[in-house]
Structure formats: structure tokens, C-alpha cells
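<amino_acid_chain>
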Amino acid sequence: MYRMDFKDVRKQATISLWISFGTGLFFFTFFTDEKSVNNLLISFLVSSIYSFVFVFGNFYTNCYLNSKYSWIDDTRTRIILGIVATIFVNIILVLFCNYLNFIVLQKNSPDHFFTGQMGFVNWVIINIALLVSAIIHAKGFMEEWKKSSRKEVVEQKLIAKSANAQFESLKNQLDPHFLFNSLNVLSALIDENPNQAQRFTASMSKIYRYVLEQKDKELVTVEEEIEFAKTYCNLLKTRFEDSVSFDFNVNETALKSYVVPLSLQLLLENCIKHNFATSSKPLHIKIYSENGFLFIENNLQQREQVKESAGIGLSNIVQRYSLLTKQNVFIEKSDDFFKVKIPMLTKKITAMTTQPTKESISYQRAAKRVDELKGFYSNLISYCLVIPFLLFINLYTSPKHLWFYWPMLGWGFGLSIHALKTFGIGKNWEEKQIQKILDRENSKK
């Protein structure tokens, strides 16, 4: 909420002084017949009364409304109360200043204060005051929205930087993780079968090149990942021979989709790590596609004693997907099998734009709302500027034929429709209908 301080008061006082000086000099130069120091001082005094009363009257009204209702959180209430308060306060201020000017200072009769020339002057000055106040309200609204937009942009940048940093951290785990586990396999092979260890070393160099090439990418095609997984499976077969079997069944359409890089390698490694495999009880691993997901399934032959895991493999995939999309990674375990299914994404886009966050959606809606309100206020300010000018031209050129009513009423009707569309029934009705359609579509699923 808004808080008024001494700087704001001093700023309003400075504005009032400049307005007093400018308007006083203007009226003294063009509307005062006798040019004297006394009349100049009177002109400045009258201008000061109007400027200080109007500026501080509207200033304190705005401060009070801003302290109760936020332009951002209570936009509609703030605008409606602002319009009502502006009309009421400015009418009171105009009548007060005109009474001091015409009745107290100029010593005119109060009997004709609301009629004749004084009544006309009251009406003109009220319109001018409402115009100035509308501009001040529009300026205050725009400043609040700009502050909110800048804050939203900063928050979005912080979210993006945080997510990207987290994503990079997760990807950087892959390089040493793969190397560490591959060296463990190689170490075991050196003792078991030195010839296989040599072939394993040659294959590992090719695979490690792929790891280095792909680990910095956010997404790779399923086809690339499957080809790499097959090469990695051949490497595993080098060590386990007929103790492990692999079955690939991924349809052609799925090959064009995208997954996070090295996800299959991590999941295959997870199968080997947590299950025992022998010739009599081989480990069967299936990789297949179904309903937009890529499945990695194995028969459950869980090791009785497993060294405490570093938690990099499966958790790494889950976390990387959470930064890329709202689609979840699913894990299913029974007495007979262990299954992981990862979503296949249909569009290769960056981590920060794969799925819009609540913050980005709110920002887009706020930006759209600002455009709507800017359009309405531009229309309102134009109306307040043009109609009084047309009225002046009408009364000055042909006071007996009041033609200014036609543009005033026609434009006023259009302005009312614009106001209803921006703040009133039309907008609510449209949003309710959209929500009904969305609810109906969701209920069919």
C-alpha cells in the first residue's frame, strides 16, 4: 500500500508554486486591464488559492485511496472509488475557491453564485478540474503498474537465473558420474576378463564422446538417445554376456520426440546397479514407447545388500524434467518388476519456456490489462480535452445554437461502452463463458 512522506508533500508544494506563478502571470498578462504591482500580487494570490487547494486536495484524496485500495490488487474498486471521489472532491474544491475569489475577494453578490456568468464559470472550472484530476489519476495508475511490471520482470529474471543455474548444476553431475561408474565396470572387467576390458575401453571412449557432446544440451531426440543406449547396452553385454538382455520397441513417430540427454543411460545403469544378473536368472530390460512416454522396465531381482547410492541417477532425471515441463516422471514398482516412464516432449524449446510458470502467466495478464486500461484512459483524457474545447468554440461563435451536445453525447456513449468493456459486465461475462467452456472440456476427459 501507498505511504505518504515529506518528500511527496514538498513535491506537491513545488508543483503548486510553479502552477501559481505560471497561471498568475498568464491571467495578469492577458486578462488584467490595469497593469500594476497590486493587481499582479492579487493575480498571484488568486492563482495560489486555486493551485494549492486543487493540488493538495487531489493529492490527499489520492493518498487516502491508495492507502486503502491498491491499484494492482484492487484495480476495479480503486478506479470506481477514484472516479466518485474525484467528482465529489473537485466540485467541493471548485465551489470553495470560486466563493473565495468571486464573493470574498471580488465582493460580488452571493445571490447569483450558481446562476448567470458565475454559474457558467463554476461549470467550466469544474470540468477543467476533473480533466486535470483524471490525468493525475491516470499518471498514478501508470506509475504503479510500471513499478509492478518492473518488479515482475526482476522476479522472472531471478526465477530464470535460478532455474538455469540449477539445470546447469544437474547437467554437470553427468560427466563425473558416468566416468566414475564406467571406471568401476572397467576395474571389474580387468580382473574378470582382460580382453573384454580392452574392448570395453575402446567402446567407452566412443560413448564418452557422446556424453561430452550431449550433456550440455537441454533436450535430444529419442532417436539419438536410443542409438546411444544401444551402444551402451552393447558395452554392458561385453561385461555381463547372457546375464542381461535388452529389448527395444520404440515406434517411428516417437523417435522424433525429445527427451533429456543421457536419461536412458542413467536408467539402464540404475537397473544394473540395483539388480543382480546371472546366467540362470538373467536381467531382462525393455525399452518401449507408449502414450507419449518412454518406458524402461526390468524384472525385479533386487540385490540384498546394495552400497548406499549417491542419488544422482533417477533423481537427476526427475529434477531435470521438473525444470523443463509440468509432465511428471512416473515410477512404478511391484514384486515382479520395476518401471520408469519419462515423458517424450513434442517440441524442442528452452527450459525456461517449455511450460509457462504461474508468474509468467500473471505477468502476461497484467501486461494485457495495462494495455486495456491505457486505451480507456487515453479515450477518457481525449474526451475531457476535446469536449470542453468544442463547448468553448460553440459558445464563442454561436451561443444560440448549441451543437456541442451531439459530439458530447455520441462520444460519451462510446466512452461508456468502453468503460463497461474494460471494468464492467462485459469483461466478467466473457471470462465466465470461457471458464464454463474450459470446465466442460475438462469434464469430458
Summary: The first helix runs from residue 6 to 31. The chain has a mean pLDDT of 76.
